[in-house]
Amino acid sequence: MSRISPKKRNLTRTPSSFTALRRPVGSSVPPASPIPSGPANSAASLVPTSSSLSTQAPRRTSQSLELNPQAKAIVQADARYVEVMACAGSGKTTVLVHRLAHLMVTRQVPASAILVLSFSNATVSEVRLRLARFESEEAHANAPAVNGIDSVHLQSVTVKTAHAFARQVTRSISGSRNLPSLMKPAEIIEFMARAATTARKSLGKDRTIAAERRLQLQAWLKALSASDLKAAHALIDFGTATDQSIKQLVKLERFAAQFGPYRLALQLLRLAYQAIKLEHRKIDYTDMLIDARTALGARAGTTALHNIKYIVVDEYQDSSLAQLQFIAELARRPGVELTVLGDQQQSIFRYAGAAAAGHALSELLPGVVSMPLSHSYRVPQTVAAATTAMLRHGDLIDVPTMTGRPGGSKPVLVHSADLARQLAAVTNDVQARLTEGVAASDIVILARVKSTLREVGAALLARGIDTDMRGTVQSTEHALQVLRLVHLVELHQAGQSLTLRALRQRLSRGLSVKASGQQWTEALQHLHRAGRGAPLEGRYIRCAAIYLRLMGGVRADADRRADVNRWAPLCRDHQTADEMRQALAKLASSPRITLSSIHKAKGGEWKHVFIVGVADGQMPNYLSRGKDALIEERSLLHVAMTRASETVRLYCAPVQHARSRQKFDRLSHFLDHPGVLRYFEVEDRR
After folding, report:
1. Which residues lie below 8 Å from residue 359, measured CB to CB, with a gap of 6+?
2. With b meaning 16 or more CB within 10 Å and e meaning fewer, what string describes 182-199?
3. Max intra-chain CA distance, the chain
4. Which phi and psi angles does 294 have, rounded to 5°?
5. Which of 97, 143, 183, 210 could form a disulfide with 187 if both were Cys (CB 3.0 to 4.6 A apart)?
6. What value does the mean pLDDT of the chain take?
7. Across residues 182-198, what is the average pLDDT?
8. What would the pLDDT profile of 48-66 be if each residue is shown by its tens digit?
9. H or E stretch covering 528
10. Separation of alpha carbons 414 and 411, rounded Å
11. What does the pLDDT read at residue 175?
């Protein structure tokens, strides 16, 4: 559809309908202000109907979007409970904004009666941004001071995470501000680790358990890693939300493989964790929701709720079971209407307790009306067909049909003989895109784990192409510190003396180094040897190790280590520390290609998507066991592919995985089927 001049967009509010005509919902339009992530969909305005032009002055917006029939039906729905089943790129958030405007304009609902809940602070910020943009465009386009029409005050609508609103409800009902404090994610792991120690001691005193079994359980508790503790906490959370015992929980498919043999240890772990929380007057996120539900059950009236009559939930698929129960409790209140919007195929947080994908709203509330939003304005039809085939292969879930925009090329699957050739394939393909004139900001490289992304980033950097890892703060600060050490080594090679005082002065500049005297002395000794017969890359690597040891240890900070090491390949093109510093300064001002884990890419959109690591064991991850885990892994690949508005390329190569001592040498079984592969172009570069 051709773009229509803003002067021709005459829009008005009507008493009986709310639609917006001119541009398809979900289509790309230049944003009014930069958006860090998420589809470039703009909220639109109200719609003209010829029958009402005489009663209201014209309303128009500079960025109007046409609502397709499915979207219009959702916006105008009058059922009490509505569950919207969207797909990637279907304009879900835009429909949410239009739904709110419909409530306020057509149904004359005040902003104080509307509550919007979302999954995370990031998604809450995105919704608020859309509401602010909509209101700004409306006010600018309609000049209310001239024509007497009030703008839609969408920014007055309450937008919160479910947890934040639950806290408000609890505080309002209890009348106390001295509530237990919320634990940070790091504190949860710390408390779980302490609980594991307490449980281990309790087992040592329990003579009702056979000695051999007791030692086995103690060894398991001692070996729990941070990721294991997080998984155990998810089990405890789920049990708290569902009021199930550990005995019941370990029989569930999602937990049986990992925790089934350790029921007794888990029971003690759960008791110890609850005791530690009580001792420190702390609660976690599930406690917060359950406290609010309990308070609601004890007392019907609260200032936090007395006006709320319309609840809209965004990113519903990522809600935990405790969130679902809290939302349902709110919706059961007399006269309250609920609309939830989500995409079950993008449920990728099951590992963190997301449960909506496995619980239809109709299981919690009666008379729910399900409404689809199945057309993607972002994803090409070729990609939509490929990812739908991938999701349906295996028959794990019922997958609705997703239609994409017309045209587009098939996703390309690239096979390489080994990891080195795979990295070369990725870097060659990225470089080819840049040579064609594609902007670096239009490219994203996705992988299941960060380690894969770091390898790709290093390979690109060696070619002078800088990258930006999503979710991490990357800078040249640590690299510049290492280069100061390299410069000292170069001065020493030129005949200047290398002293402990010079080392301390050079490295301590603007930096907090907490090394002991012995460590400084050892660092000086290593520096004396760092330049022997080594090119710049060798000197940099040796000085990087010295720097990391002075900063607390080579393994003390994984992000710092990665930030230091990523620059080593670039040293091959330079001779001295000074040359390398100049290269870093030049790179700092150049455009960067985005690297991202698939989880962190959710909500983002790029023209060209490169997915690295689709061998079986990488995708799905070798640790994924059971139906739920495999559904989530399949959804991850779907999320990765549907970030693209133009092209998708996937890369597969044999991997010798050190941690598991396995070789992943087959294509992902999500893709390795004739019924799936027929939707892909296959390039064999082995």
Report:
1. 321, 324
2. ebeeeebbebbbebbebb
3. 90
4. -60, -45
5. 183
6. 81
7. 92
8. 333 332 333 333 333 345 7
9. helix 517-530
10. 10
11. 67
Q: Determine the CATH number of domain 6-167+303-373.
A: 3.40.50.300
Confidence of residue 204 (pLDDT cuts 50, 70, 90): confident
| Residue 469: pLDDT band with limits 50, 70, 90 | confident
258: left (phi over 0), alpha (psi -120 to 50) or beta: alpha
Q: How far is CA 117 from the centre of its chain?
A: 17
For the cut 90, the answer to whether the pLDDT of residue 363 exceeds it is: no
Confidence of residue 35 (pLDDT cuts 50, 70, 90): very low
Q: How many alpha carbons lie under 13 Å from residue 540 in its C-beta half-sphere?
A: 25
Beta-carbon neighbour count of residue 665 at 10 Å? 13
- CATH code, residues 405-466+593-684: 3.40.50.300
380 vs 394, more confident:
380
Identify the pLDDT of residue 303.
Answer: 57
Alpha carbon separation from 254 to 217, 221, 282, 338, 372 (Å, rounded): 21, 20, 27, 29, 28
Separation CA 611–CA 607 (nearest Å):
13
Q: pTM of the prediction?
A: 0.75
Give 489-517 pLDDT, tens digit per residue.
Answer: 888 888 888 888 888 877 766 566 667 78
The contacts of residue 521 (CB under 8 Å, 6+ apart) are: 500
Asked if residue 68 lies in contact with residue 372, where contact means CB atoms within 8 angstroms, the answer is no
Going by C-beta distance under 8 Å and a sequence separation of 6 or more, which residues neighbour residue 550?
Answer: 507, 513, 515, 519, 520, 523
Q: CA of 166: how far to CAs of 117, 322, 330, 576, in Å?
A: 10, 11, 10, 58
| 445/649 Cα distance (integer angstroms) | 10
Say if residue 356's pLDDT is above 80: no
Instruction: Report how far residue 414's alpha carbon sits from residue 80's, in angstroms, rounded to the nearest whole number.
Output: 49
Are 346 and 316 contacting, i.e. CB atoms less than 8 angstroms apart? no
Among 379-388, 392-401, 598-607, which stretch is predicted with the lowest mean pLDDT?
392-401
Query: For residue 1, what are its two tokens?
Result: 């559809």
The first and second tokens of residue 45, run together, are 């305005």
Residue 275 CA from chain centroid, whole number: 32
Tokens of 182: 């919320």
Question: What is the average per-residue pLDDT within 181-186?
Answer: 86
Phi and psi of 390, rounded to 5°?
-65, -45
Q: Each residue of 18-27: pLDDT tens digit?
A: 333 333 443 3
CA-CA distance, 340 to 361, in Å (whole number)?
9
Strands (E) located in 508-661: 593-597, 606-612, 644-652, 655-657
Q: Which residue has the higher pLDDT, 302 or 81?
A: 81
Residue 292 structure tokens: 């609010």
Residue 357: partners with Cβ closer than 8 Å, 6 or more residues away: 317, 344, 347, 350, 631, 635
What percentage of the chain has pLDDT greater than the value 90? 36
Angle between helices 450-461 and 558-565 (to 10 degrees): 20
Give the domain ranges of the chain. Answer: 6-167+303-373, 184-283, 405-466+593-684, 477-588
- Residues 645 and 39: their CA atoms lie apart, in Å, by 10
